[in-house]
Amino acid sequence: MKSESLVLPDKVYTVSEITQLVKLELEMSFPQVWVMGEVSNARKYPSGHLFFTLKDAGSSLSAVMWRSEVARLKYELKDGLQLVCRGKIDVYPPRGSYQLVVDLAEPKGKGALQLAFEQLKEKLRAEGLFDPQHKKKLPLLPKKVGIVTSPRGAAIVDILRTLERRFARLHVLIYPARVQGEGAAEEIVEGIETLGSLPDLDVIIVGRGGGSIEDLWAFNEEKVARAIFRCPVPVISAVGHEVDFTIADFVADVRASTPSVAAEIVIEKEQAFADEIDHLERRAVQGVRNGLQERKHEVTYLAQHRIFQNFKIRLLNSEQQVDGLETRAREVVRGEQRKIAEAKARAALLQERIFGSFRRRLQDQAAKWERLSAELHSHSPLNILKKGYTLCWKDGGTRIVSKIEDIEKDEDVVVSFYQGEFFCRVKDVDRESRIESRAVKEK
């Protein structure tokens, strides 16, 4: 039998060419596509890239999220999640396989933020951050309170207004921080750590006004929750929403539904003390009034009784005795007054003697001072210059010449009289001649 010969076509493709054609066709056909499926085999590599598989009852599709997209995820992408993913189809030539490059992944049936909230809540609950045993008690009578919030928001106004109206003596420290948007969580953490390090702070209020879950998300960040848990000072979470809770509410030592309520919680015990004091004061006053009224009734009753007839006589006798004692007391006072007057006279005489002795001593010292002043004046350099003596200076008149060894030939000197001075240059120096010999020569 004669075998058939192989007839080659006009075009034969290489594997790479086929792969490139498929890659081009798929990428052009699916530049952007939405795919729904269940996550399985999720793996995050050290590079930060996330690889996983989307599957349904009949098929599976490989998927990848690059590091930059993973960093924007609010929740943890893990096996079992139902996702709706947006991306594009990409062919990987070395394996000839295709995959979905995901740039957006939303949980099916609930938002990404809500899922992230539930995941973090469950994680921190498992670690014990919500346990009541870790909750710190608020101080009985706080004196200094710290506030971490926006300095321009309604929350700070509500807190300060409540504190001022109810307890104006409280010392307030405000740490300004953004409470919404990028970087808000970092500033809130910094505020909690800074105020928490102060040794004399009693309590910290952390919060803001109400808003959507996106607006309040900074208080759902894990870093904020852990900063509240680590804080050595009791923390009140005061995010302005009545029904919904944030992660900060669960971790905080006390949760307040609004910033105003947080301020009232801080000072409620102080107000309770003040109310109790007012109540006790009213009871004391009323008790005294009641007691006085009872005593008044008793005195009226006794005054009408017969026994008081003798009491009146005894009272009159006592009044006479009091008059006698008063007379004797006046006589004793007069005697003491005479003794005091005599003592004053003796003291005045003694005082005059002391002052006389002091005046004489002062006059002697003044005379001695005048003699010493006159003697000092006679030895004064100026007084000596008046007699015709002079002073010789060198170095421009800054250093006095006290001996002949200080003078050199051709040196400029200054000669000072009592009044006036002149400048000269030394023509010659005679270190041997003395004033006594010069006086002998003149004679």
Question: Descriptors for this entry?
Answer:
443 residues, Rossmann fold, 47% helix, OB fold (Dihydrolipoamide Acetyltransferase, E2P), five-stranded parallel sheet, five-stranded mixed barrel, alpha/beta
**Overall SS class:** alpha/beta
Strand order across the largest sheet = 1-2-3-5-4
The helix/strand series, from N terminus to C terminus, equals HEEEHEEHEHEHEHEHEHHHEEEEH
Unreliable runs, pLDDT <50, ≥5 residues?
none
Overall pLDDT, averaged? 81
Distance between the termini: 174 Å
Number of alpha- plus pi-helical segments = 11
* CATH H level, superfamily name of the largest domain: Hypothetical protein af1403, domain 2
- Our estimate of the beta-strand percent is 15-25%
CATH architecture of the largest domain: 3-Layer(aba) Sandwich
* Radius of gyration, taken over Cα atoms and rounded to an integer in Å: 53 Å
Range of helix content: 40-55%
CATH topology of the largest domain: Rossmann fold
Specify the oligomeric state: single chain
Protein described:
It is a single chain. This protein has 443 residues and is α/β, with parallel strands linked by helices. The chain has four domains: 95 residues, OB fold (Dihydrolipoamide Acetyltransferase, E2P) (Beta Barrel), CATH 2.40.50; 140 residues, Hypothetical protein af1403, domain 2 (Rossmann fold, 3-Layer(aba) Sandwich), CATH 3.40.50; 74 residues; 58 residues, no CATH class. 47% of the residues lie in helices and 20% in strands. The protein is built from eleven helices and 14 strands. It has a five-stranded mixed β-barrel with strand order 1-2-3-5-4. Strand 1 and strand 2 form a beta hairpin. The longest helix has 72 residues. It is flat and about 160 Å long. The termini are far apart.
